[in-house]
Amino acid sequence: MRLELDGVLLAWGTDLVWEGEAWCNARAKRHACSAHVRDPFQLRVNAYRALLTRGRDGAVIFVPPVAELDAIAAQLQGHRVRVLGQGPSPAAAGPTPVRQFHPVHPDRARLR
Prior knowledge:
Structural class: alpha+beta
């Protein structure tokens, strides 16, 4: 059986980050040195991939505004993932705006 969800809300963590030209899971703590997991990096990549591809109606990706995840936000925007609500302007006083992304699935529109 395949996992299928109406919608997915994914909070991106620092356990899988984009560093330079490749994905890195060096900050991941769980399964990093576990004897029962053969490839912790592939396990982490597969978990993100499964969640990102299982939403029938789409997905919302929350990327916290932390420096380690700026490259993730840039990668998502570079792959036609649009930002939901830009929040306050950078000149406005207050906390950094939250980045939320919504993947655009052109194939989904044809299925409806």
